[in-house]
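Methods: holo model generation. Sequences were used as deposited, without trimming of termini or removal of tags, and paired with ligand SMILES retrieved from the corresponding compound records. Each pair was processed once, and we did not select among multiple samples. The sequence and adenosine-5'-triphosphate SMILES for this entry were:
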Amino acid sequence: MTQRASRKSHPRPTQLASAVRLHWKAALLVAAAMAGQTLLTLAQPWPLRSMIDHVVKNPAEAHDLAARYNLMEFILVSVRGFVQEDRFHFLFQGIFLLALIYCGNALLLYVQNMALASLGQRVVLTIRERLFSHLVALPHNYFEKARTGDLTSRISKDTADAQDILESILTVLIRSLPTIVGILVVSFTMDWIYALTFLMVIPVVYWANVFFSRRTREAVRKQRRIEGALASNVQEAFYYHKAVTSLSLESEIIDDFLEGGRESAEHAVRAGRFQGMLTASMDMLVGATSLLVLFVGILRIIHGCLTVGQLMVFLSYLNSLFKPIRELSKFASRWAKSAAALERIEEIMALNPLEVGASDLPHAVPAPRFRGHVEFRDVWFGYEKDHPILQDFRLAAAAGERVALVGDSGSGKSTILHLLMRLYDPDRGTVAIDGRDIRDFTLASLRGQMAVVLQDSYIFRMSVRENIAMAKPGASEEEITAAARAAGAHDFIQRLPQGYDTQLGEGGGGLSGGQKRRLAIARAILRDAPIVILDEPTVGLDAASEKRVMEAIGRLTRGRTTFMVTHQLATIMDFDRIVVLSGGKVVESGRHEDLIRADGLYRRLWESQQAGEDSSRAPVG
Ligand SMILES: Nc1ncnc2c1ncn2[C@@H]1O[C@H](COP(=O)(O)OP(=O)(O)OP(=O)(O)O)[C@@H](O)[C@H]1O
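and the model returned the structure below.
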């Protein structure tokens, strides 16, 4: 049972990193473009500095020019200066360098955006694929407790949010950090006293970011959980719409929805508040630091330790430093959302199928084609710890034998089928096919040799043909039609508006219960499996439908080892063996006539069913 307990490991942020590693070329391109921009941003104030310092050193010249000439003269003198004299060389050089920097920046920005969009999409797709494959391959018992709406939102929304976090991480790592380092290096080499002004600000900015982001993230995480639950409720309401309306549950469902929506909104408002505080405190910090830098800077200029151009460089660096930080603070709630989303993805990826339930064991090998000799050897099993459903259960079916499992409700009939399909593993004992423990085989090769028809026929939203063909990928048209004929489904399929091409609704909308069942039988016939599993295939059908379905089942099960769970004893009178269960144990076993003669539980079930049928047929009044 310990195997079955679903355990959560602590989330590790590995998915994003490994997806990025997989697309390292695109990541490298983004990083190179960002790094190039950072370098250009760091270089940008220098031409400005040399121009300003040049002008400040020659103030009379500058002042003279502006005061003496009108506009036309000013332009003419300036152009002559550029063409004939060396006087404006500093200006020409500065403008040229700045123009180069701006063009380079624009080009790199374009490359960065292109590469980032492509990297983001590829990373999202990779995470989505991995998450979906991991989820689909998880053992069945995981889905009994999981909320499917929540899982859907993890696959669609949470994975998409990974792109945001990727963008944020790259911005911080490749843009902000080098900018900070560049500023510190340049500042210390120019004027270390002045550099201390910067240094003081960094921890405050960091602390404010961490403090408010953490709170925003907590609020967003709660909001996400509630939204996941809401999505599950919505999905349930639509899926069971018939039950919802027939039980008049609409108002309760709407109330639940509104309640969840209100809770989610409260957390969203909370997140917004922290986000607002973060943005405001960042703005205040930027303002205060700029003032401090200006104040100290002018004092340093007066003391002759700094030039005006150098102050310009500092101010420009400060702006470049705060730009990404302010941007990030504005995106704090997006960042928080993405971080919460990544955690939710990691949570699922950390589930080890072997710990969750029945899955491929490391030594499993593909099963050979089965003859179909099935054995349950001293099997103990319970869904919950300390609540065994089957105790010391033994049953053997020869290859090709048709076995019916009957008994009281809750006696463990379907559980036996679950163990045979390896939806669960026994706590003790073994289930064996052709003498080998089924755990030795890979799940795909084991289940690939079983044809299953359940109470719910599982019709998918695709054409009739595709619904049948999914049992055998690549099946020919003749094989599909032959299977449909054998299942007694061909005639009604041909009467459908587009025959085999008719698109079916989710859950088989548009077909009657009996038609759905026969479609499922056609699928099982096409599978051509040595083992057939049927769980109450005729339940809920009228007498005529039941007859047609049983004829189809007769053709499906011919020569194949069959296990059929049923309450309708009249449908199994010709079975090779009827196994009667009570409280998880076999109490009787034999053919119909033998069991009637034995005068035990089977006979009582049979007689009560006959009496029920007689009374239902008796004329009223
Ligand atoms: N997924 C599950 N988790 C926990 N308990 C379960 C689960 N499925 C079945 N059970 C319990 O195991 C017992 C046997 O169930 P099972 O479905 O095998 O009985 P059954 O004989 O097929 O019943 P029925 O004829 O009503 O379908 C029941 O008490 C049931 O409540």
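Strands lie at 374-381, 390-397, 402-407, 428-433, 436-437, 450-453, 531-535, 561-565, 577-582, 585-590.
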